[in-house]
Amino acid sequence: MKIVDAEVVVTSPGRNFVTLKLTTDEGLTGLGDATLNGRELAVVSYLTDHVTPLLIGLDPHRVEDTWQSLYRGAYWRRGPVTMAAVDVALWDIKAKAAGLPLYQLLGGASRERIGTYGHANGRDIPELLDSVRARLAEGCPAVRIQSGVPGLKAVYGVSDTDDTGAPVLHQQARPLVEDWDTAAYLRHVPTVFEAVRAEFGAELPLLHDSHHRLTPVQAARLGKDLEPYRPFWLEDCTPAENQEALRLVRRSTTTPLAVGEVFNTVYDYQTLVTEQLIDYVRSAVTHFGGVTPLRKLFDFAAQYQIKSAIHGPEDISPVGMAAAVHLDLAVHNFGIQEYSGHTPLTDEVFRHAYTFSDGHLHPGDAPGIGVELDEELAAAHPYSAAYLPVNRLHDGTVHDW
Ligand code: CS2
Ligand code: MG
């Protein structure tokens, strides 16, 4: 078998998605997610101008060799652009050729279904409590809580979903500038946990995403302040490119830590994992080079009792989500799967076999990753430039959003 066609499909059914579609001489097709929120066209060019011409004629069954060739052959390796899409499309083809759902090629099922966490958010605490109720009504076994901060007009993670829970998507043609005040945030988050615990009790697993906005000592402070509320995890508490920063946080608090959605290779995690500075690894197939390297990361992490928690907001496309759910079902050290869902139109463009019910996911048993791309419908929704917001402090200094 050999690859005879490679197509990059850009579509925007509410938000931008980039998908690689490979076709073989036997008529099999494979899909890979290449969505990079706010930098989509960089990946389109990388794939179209530099990668897909090299894929024509290759044997799609040579998944590991193709991954190694693209990683080492790029020379300028690593980063979110160079790691997109191809690997998942090849696994999709390989599993379809075998007539099996992908998880069966990854060792088979290690569990019956996949536990998720949903996004709950509110501009203020009453709105947040209503949003938690909505997630619980969907059966979510765990909930991420993000709220507005008194004195700040808008913050990350709030109004990400409307009152029906549908994702409200960032579609600004230029980055919105939002204001940020770390001290106000650090004062406010413990009161949010206090209110949610008072309303929903001590058992509901609660997660929170600090979204890279704290210094290590501020992250240590927040981790300690949240200990009485037993969070399931505190995510991206401090920019973790400086992996050693997590040493200070780790020795200061027992709050579990999750890191890695912006990481692209195992080397980004090396100190974090070998020194057990974190409890969950967050990378998604879309930004980590696919199923091949992500499975290796999970096996590396398993040696240190660290679990998977694949990144799953709405800017991971249903193609990326499908590959995640197959991995989630198969790996032993599964932790939890983020799932904020997609708009109904997105689910029409990307018809998927995975199901979400009672707060849990299952990949289904369709051959491959189980996603069909409606290219005609995709073409009806062209790309529109969209950027994530940026933060600025009150004195105008730019800050992580
Ligand atoms: C967030 C993401 O879901 C999360 O944990 O960090 O929603 C992140 O803000 C987006 O993926 C950025 O595009
Ligand atoms: Mg995050």
Description:
The protein is about 35% helix and about 20% strand. The protein is of the alpha/beta class and about 400 residues long. The chain has two domains: about 5-100, 2-Layer Sandwich (Enolase-like, domain 1), CATH 3.30.390; about 115-365, Alpha-Beta Barrel (TIM Barrel), CATH 3.20.20.120. Strands 4, 5, 7, 8, 9, 10, 11, 12, 14 and 15 form a ten-stranded mixed β-sheet that branches. Strands 1-2-3 form a three-stranded antiparallel β-sheet. Strands 6-17-18 form a three-stranded mixed β-sheet, with no helix packed on it. Helix 5 (about 125-135) packs across helix 6 and helix 6 (about 180-200) runs parallel beside helix 7. The protein is globular and about 60 Å long. D-mannonic acid binds near residues 209, 211, 315 and 388. D-mannonic acid binds next to loops.
List the helices and strands and how they pair.
Elements: E1 3-11, E2 17-24, E3 29-33, H1 40-55, H2 63-73, H3 86-98, H4 102-105, E4 114-122, H5 125-137, E5 142-147, E6 177-180, H6 182-200, E7 206-209, H7 216-226, E8 233-235, H8 245-252, E9 257-259, H9 270-274, E10 280-281, H10 285-288, H11 291-302, E11 307-308, H12 318-330, E12 337-338, H13 344-349, E13 350-352, E14 355-357, E15 360-362, E16 371-373, H14 375-379, E17 390-393, E18 398-399
Parallel strand pairs: 4-5, 4-12, 5-7, 6-17, 7-8, 8-9, 9-10, 10-11
Antiparallel strand pairs: 1-2, 2-3, 4-15, 13-16, 14-15, 17-18
Helix pairs in contact: 2-3, 5-6, 6-7, 7-8
